[in-house]
Amino acid sequence: MITQSGNRATPRLDLGAALMEYFDNAQDFIGLRVYPMFESKEKAAYFPAITRESIARRADVKRAPNGKYNRDGYETRDLQFSCYEYGLEAPVDDAKKSLYKSDFDAELVATQIIGRRLQLEHEIRVKTSVIDTATFTGADLYKDNAAAPWTTAGSDVRSQVNEAKEKIRVNSGLSPNAMIMSQGNLDALKGNTAILDAIKYTARLTDAEIVNALADYFGIQNILIGKATYNSAKEGKAFAGGYVWPDTYVSLAILSGDTSKSLTDPALGRTVLWTADSPEANLVETYRDESVRGDVVRVRQNVDELLIDKYFGFLMKVR
């Protein structure tokens, strides 16, 4: 048990680690894979983003005997991030603690509930940034394939994906390494005639094996399946379930890896974390509140979801 000193908040690394394990096991959220975390010492700042013009531009690399090497620079575009604090609290009543095996178990339940809500809002913000027909518009960034929907078994899905891949290659000089879709679209692909024929010799047709087979089939390194759901009804109203990632759209993108330390790496977007205020993606704290005769669990983060370059992505309407 963590002893509270007055009502000053105490960081809880044990609850934080348990919360991350909970997210990993649930596998509902993909927001931090689509926009991986970048740790910043600054709350707000400008940074020089490498442009697609620099990546794809040719240069004179020939050197004459006894001559000097040609020098070449690279173009950047100033982008700004500004982190904002998000958080929730939940009281853990002393009377309720007796229902659990330990105080930690009682605190963990509260942490998981509010931590999931915090992560859900991050997921929705990332989805809103990625699935945006106002940003991804025009033939270079968007294609309406609803006339040959993914729900139709005979649709040539592979050609649709190849066309999107080629658009990103032409736009940026790089190949996309990720496809982002809903669970509903994964289910639709399971009924596609050409895909079924291509993966029929897969040893075990689990979702995980199918996703791996689809990555090979489409020639894309990562296929990210958004499974998160939410209740859109107001408190006290009947449950109204919905999906965060819509079945209507699929996105292809160049994503940075989780271990990338540079905002200048080619990537569709990043989640910037202000580490001076919240050193963890989901910082868990507890403090004593005698007005509720219990301890209070708080989960918070100070972040900004940043679209770095829309030309590192392509949006398809698939239904």
Highlighted features:
319 residues, alpha+beta, phage-related protein like fold, six-stranded mixed sheet, five-stranded mixed sheet, 9 helices, 27% strand, globular, disordered N terminus
Briefly, what is this?
By secondary structure, the protein is an alpha+beta fold. It has helices at residues 13-26, 31-34, 52-56, 94-97, 103-130, 157-172, 183-189, 193-198, 207-218; strands spanning 10-11, 37-40, 44-50, 76-82, 84-93, 142-144, 178-182, 222-226, 229-231, 241-243, 249-253, 269-274, 283-289, 294-307, 313-317.
Protein architecture, described:
There is one protein chain. Strands 1, 2, 5, 12, 13 and 14 form a 6-stranded mixed β-sheet that branches. The chain is built from 9 helices and 15 strands. 33% of the residues are buried. It is of the alpha+beta class and 319 residues long.
Draw up the topology in text.
Elements lengths: L9 E2 L1 H14 L4 H4 L2 E4 L3 E7 L1 H5 L19 E7 L1 E10 H4 L5 H28 L11 E3 L12 H16 L5 E5 H7 L3 H6 L8 H12 L3 E5 L2 E3 L9 E3 L5 E5 L15 E6 L8 E7 L4 E14 L5 E5 L2
Parallel strand pairs: 2-12, 6-15, 7-8
Antiparallel strand pairs: 1-13, 3-4, 5-14, 7-11, 9-10, 11-15, 12-14, 13-14
